[in-house]
Every structure is written in C-alpha cells, then in structure tokens.
Amino acid sequence: DAKTTQPNSMESNEEEPVHLPCNHSTISGTDYIHWYRQLPSQGPEYVIHGLTSNVNNRMASLAIAEDRKSSTLILHRATLRDAAVYYCILLPIYNQGGKLIFGQGTELSVKP
Amino acid sequence: EPEVTQTPSHQVTQMGQEVILRCVPISNHLYFYWYRQILGQKVEFLVSFYNNEISEKSEIFDDQFSVERPDGSNFTLKIRSTKLEDSAMYFCASSEMYTTSGNTIYFGEGSWLTVV
Known about the structure:
By secondary structure, chain A is mainly β. Helices cover 0% and strands 46% of the residues of chain A.
C-alpha cells in the first residue's frame, strides 16, 4: 500500500484558511487521493478526493501537485467545528472492499 | 442525510464473554465494513463484506471474530471470547459499491467496547 506523510499537528485561527499538506511520493498512476477527517469521539467522515485535477466541494478544496507526489487539503475558513484529525489516504482505483489504510493523520486545532 | 447507525454505543463485558455489535448500514449500500480504533491509536481495518461473504479481512480478524448479515438491514460483528486487548471503539461502515473514483465510505458513530 502506498504511504502518505502528514505533519502530526497544525494550528489555525477561526475564520482563517487552513492548508493541510500530504506527501505521497510513491503514488501510482491509479491511486486516488482521499481525505477523511475524524472529529473528537466520532467516526471518520469523508471530506474530498481527487486523481489529478484540483477538486472543490462544499467542505473543502483539494489541490494536487502536477507530479501528484503531494497534495494539499484547503479549508477556506476554519471553524471551531473543523478541529479534527485529518487523514490523507491513497486508494487504488480498483480497490474493491474499501480497505482504507489510516495513518496518524494531522491533528488540526482551531483557536477562536 | 442517510447514516450508518450502531448499537450499543457503549458496552462493558467480562473477559471471555461473547459480544455482538450491531450496525444498520445505509439502505442502498452493498459493501459493509468493520474498523476498530484502540484508544489513542490509528483506525484499523478489520473486515469487508459483500454479497453475503467476506471480501477481505485483516490479520486482526482472527477466528474469534465473525460477521453476519442476518437480515436485509442489520450487519453484526461477533467476538466469541473477548480479551482485554479487544477493548476499542468499533466502527461500522458502508459504501454503495467499490471504493473507486465515484464512491465514499460512510462510517457510523462507533460502539465503544470495554473488556474488564
């Protein structure tokens, strides 16, 4: 399974943008980049995913480097509710059965 | 919004006892999963289930564990003889089809199991 590397923790101020980086230098051409997050005492929650192009949804944006060896999850305006552990996970396109491999993730704290 | 529901939210059991954790996946989903998270550690994959059989299982999912879809709505995880190290949060999840480009996995809130 391809590995990802994320900072252990990051801090942000409320209502400011947050850029959460992820390195995946061994990514293969058929790996999708998925982001999940886990709020305190809750189950993991899907955030966004992409392959090559940048992606936007109501929760966040995903910026993918041209060589695909890194990506950045962007929260445009952090709220207190965004305090969570964010996981960057590579998922092969033909991965049947949904075997997500969670790393340690990045623990994001948001200050009021 | 549809959600995965799990019961019980918390269960305390004595070592050696059998435990059944229950889950109701999202109704039109075809793939079902169990993950667990020991306190302070990573979320770990246990097993995936599709078309009434196990698709894949991890090394953690040994003979003490079993899964079942007893009817059209429930999905259960049974631990036959619990050990202290089985104490963890157990997450049920489901997805509509393969986890390829268009699909995501939806997780429940978890069942916290404490073995004493």
